[in-house]
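Technical annex, item 7. During the second reporting period the consortium partners agreed on a shared format for inverse folding records so that results from different sites could be compared directly. Each record opens with the tokenized structure and is followed by the designed sequence. A conforming record, contributed by the partner at site C, is shown below for reference.
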């Protein structure tokens, strides 16, 4: 909100792979990992953020406004070229998608998300 933004590009998450409820120790580890990932991105000159949910922490880049994205979709495209995938615990997330040719596997792309209030 401090940047006047309402969206950001999610590039990573830290949490349990099996989606079960994490222990307090795991939650602390996920939070520390997300904070470190954001620090590393900032050290590389990126506008990076982290968000701690109840069982998972997310890492995002960019502070974007929907109005700006509609006026200039190249902004999002440039970010996604630098950060093409959404990673879980630092690794790509394989997902099955349906295409005209049938089902295919791909790495989950980074995705635009709303900034929590």
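Designed sequence (site C submission):
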């Amino acid at each position: 909100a401090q940047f006047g933004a309402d969206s950001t590009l999610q590039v990573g998450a830290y949490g349990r792979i099996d989606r079960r409820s994490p222990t307090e120790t795991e939650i602390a580890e996920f939070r520390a990992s997300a904070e470190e990932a954001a620090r590393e991105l900032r050290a590389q000159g990126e506008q990076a953020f982290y968000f701690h949910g109840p069982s998972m922490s997310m890492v995002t880049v960019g502070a974007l406004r929907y109005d700006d994205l509609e006026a200039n979709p190249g902004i999002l495209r440039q970010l996604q070229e630098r950060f093409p995938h959404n990673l879980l615990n630092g690794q790509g997330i394989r997902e099955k998608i349906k295409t005209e040719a049938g089902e295919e596997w791909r790495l989950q792309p980074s995705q635009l998300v709303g900034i929590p209030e």
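The two ends are 8 Å apart (CA to CA). The mean pLDDT is 94. All partners now use this format for quarterly exchanges.
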